[in-house]
Amino acid sequence: MANFNNVSSTNTIKGWLSYPIGILQLVAYSGPLRNTLAIAWKEIKSYFSSPMAYVVAAFFVTWCAIWFVRGTIDSTFPEATIRGFLYFFLTWWIIILISSVLTMRLFAEEAKLGTLELLLTAPVKDYEIVIGKFLSTLVMMLASLALTLYFVLLLFWFGDPDPGPIFSGYLGIILLWSTILAIGLFASSLTNNQIVSFVVTTAITGFFFIIDVAAGRLTGVAADILNNLSLLGHIDDFGRGVIDISNVVYYISFTVVFLFLTVISLEMRRWR
Question: Whole-model pTM?
């Protein structure tokens, strides 16, 4: 009788577990997600089969290493935070340049080679293409940021940092970088030329950076409007350990808007 009860209990547990597992399998093998992941995997393999991924990652880590030494260790007032190498103006411009390099080929190169037309006539939705390519750039971004965790380990080894600002700081960088990647993806969908895509990405993102400087020189309603539009106007709180939901919503909304514009751009290509 006891054995029967054990078997019955085991079957019941397996029955409970079968529902979420079945749902996950259904989602994983559903058309949209399968197509999206296939496109993302194709782009990831393309990144890592060329020197670009390694050059970009090495450049970013080297940049962070230099400013980790100069901004954290050799600083007049050293702090056990990531602000010394991630949260300052030049690093954000480096992120713009890296994002422009990562995204400029995603649509522009395919359009130049003629493979974009094949992709657009394949049985996949435009949003699947956009999200798949966007996910591949997120993997590159996260891989580059993961390498900088070495400096965080050094902070904990030699100092006593507060983990809160470190966590929120990385969250802010991920949100900011994702937004810039979405802008780059949109720029790449507009042209067949990678250089033009690079310039457009830098120009659009640079504009939303520069208005932060303009906001600092204005007062009143004009300053408030520019601060709300500025990409940099929402990042400082993360570096101080403050996760304001309005800032999170801002970056996610900004990212979604440019991904949506990219989908519209692809749809317009179908009718050219």
Answer: 0.81
